[in-house]
C-alpha cells in the first residue's frame, strides 16, 4: 500500500512520463528580407517570448507587402508584416481575406535624403532638382501626394529610377540632388555621407503632411477564425518583443544576427534604431503601442485611395482591422 509520500512520488513520476504539450506552429511572413527593422520577430524567438506563449515560429522571407499579403491570404503563412496601405488597397480591389490586428509602425517610412551642399532644406526646395528612387518602393505611390501638399507636381522634378544599391552613390557623387528612401536606412546613408565628406539631410514626408500607418501585423482570416487563441498568444508575444527590442537594442541586434549570420549585429542595430522611431514616437504617446486609431486609419485610407486612384467608397477602413486580438494597454 502507498503511504501519502509514496503516492505523491508516484503521481509525479506519472506526470513526468507524459510528453510536454506540443507548441503551436505559426508561420510568420516577412514583407521583405531579414534585417534590423524585422528585429521583433527574431527577439520573440531568441528571448523565448514565443516559446513562453506555447508557440513555435517558422519565418518566411518576402519581397514586398503585396507578396506577403498574397501568401497570408492563401494560407501559405499565418500572420506577418505588411503595409497598412497595401492591405487596404488589396481589400478594396480584391477582397483579400487578410486583416490587420496591430500596428507596428504608426508613421510612414518615406523620406527624401539629400546633402547639405545641395541647397535642399525643405521639401519645397526639391523643385527643379534631380531625384533618384528605386523602381518598386511604395514611396513612389505617395510621391505625387507629398509634392502636391507642398505646392509641387512631378513635372517640377526630374525623377530617375535606379537600383536600390545605387541610390547612395548617386547622391554622394552629386549625380542626384536627392534620393527617395525609407527612414529605416538613416544609419546606412549617414555612413556613406561621412565617407564622402558630406553632411546628410533627411526630410521625412510625415513632417510634411503625409501622416499614415505603415507596417502592421496582418493575419489570414482563416487563421484568426480557426485558431483565435493561438493568434492572441502570438500578438501578445510579438508586442512584448517589440517593447523589449526598443528597450534593449543590442540584444535585439544580437537576436537577428544569431539567426541570420550573414547580417552583422552592428549593421542590424543601426537599422533597428532607425526603424524603432517609426514605432515609438509622438504618435505612440497619444495612441498606445500597437493600437489602431479610427481617425488615423481613415486618414490612411484617404491617402491610399488618392495615391492609387481608388474609389474611397470601395472600402470601409474599419473592415481592414480587428482590434480584439491586441492585449489591453497596461
From TrEMBL:
Coiled coil (UniProt feature): none
UniProt keyword list: Signal
Pfam families the record matches: NMT1
Domain SsuA/THI5-like, first and last residues per copy: 39-252
The UniProt record lists the keyword Signal: yes
Signal peptide interval: 1-22
Name the UniProt record assigns to this protein: SsuA/THI5-like domain-containing protein
Classification lineage: Bacteria, Pseudomonadati, Pseudomonadota, Alphaproteobacteria, Hyphomicrobiales
Amino acid at each position: 500500500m502507498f503511504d501519502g509520500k509514496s503516492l505523491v512520488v508516484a503521481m509525479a513520476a506519472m506526470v513526468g512520463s507524459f510528453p510536454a504539450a506540443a507548441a503551436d506552429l505559426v508561420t510568420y511572413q516577412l514583407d521583405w528580407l531579414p534585417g534590423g527593422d524585422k528585429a521583433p520577430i527574431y527577439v520573440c524567438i531568441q528571448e523565448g517570448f514565443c516559446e513562453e506563449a506555447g508557440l513555435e515560429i517558422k519565418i518566411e522571407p518576402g519581397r514586398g507587402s503585396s507578396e506577403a499579403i498574397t501568401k497570408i491570404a492563401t494560407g501559405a503563412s499565418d500572420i506577418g508584416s505588411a503595409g497598412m496601405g497595401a492591405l487596404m488597397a488589396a481589400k478594396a480591389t480584391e477582397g483579400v481575406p487578410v486583416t490587420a490586428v496591430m500596428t507596428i509602425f504608426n508613421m510612414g517610412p518615406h523620406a527624401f535624403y539629400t546633402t547639405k551642399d545641395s541647397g535642399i532644406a525643405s521639401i519645397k526646395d526639391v523643385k527643379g532638382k534631380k531625384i533618384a528612387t528605386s523602381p518598386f518602393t511604395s514611396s513612389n505611390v505617395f510621391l505625387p501626394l507629398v509634392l502636391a501638399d507642398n505646392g509641387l507636381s512631378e513635372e517640377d522634378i526630374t525623377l530617375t529610377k535606379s537600383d536600390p544599391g545605387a541610390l547612395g552613390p548617386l547622391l554622394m557623387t552629386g549625380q542626384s540632388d536627392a534620393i527617395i528612401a525609407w527612414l529605416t536606412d538613416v544609419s546606412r546613408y549617414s555612413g556613406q555621407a561621412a565617407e564622402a565628406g558630406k553632411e546628410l539631410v533627411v526630410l521625412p514626408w510625415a513632417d510634411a503632411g503625409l501622416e499614415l500607418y505603415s507596417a502592421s501585423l496582418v493575419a489570414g482570416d482563416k487563421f484568426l477564425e480557426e485558431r483565435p487563441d493561438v493568434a492572441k498568444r502570438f500578438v501578445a508575444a510579438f508586442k512584448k518583443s517589440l517593447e523589449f527590442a526598443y528597450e534593449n537594442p543590442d540584444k535585439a541586434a544580437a537576436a537577428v544576427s544569431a539567426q541570420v549570420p550573414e547580417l552583422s549585429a552592428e549593421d542590424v542595430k543601426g537599422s533597428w534604431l532607425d526603424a524603432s522611431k517609426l514605432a515609438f514616437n509622438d504618435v505612440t504617446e497619444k495612441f498606445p503601442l500597437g493600437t489602431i486609431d479610427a481617425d488615423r486609419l481613415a486618414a490612411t485610407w484617404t491617402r491610399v485611395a488618392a495615391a492609387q486612384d481608388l474609389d474611397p467608397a470601395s472600402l470601409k477602413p474599419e473592415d481592414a482591422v480587428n482590434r480584439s486580438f491586441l492585449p489591453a494597454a497596461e
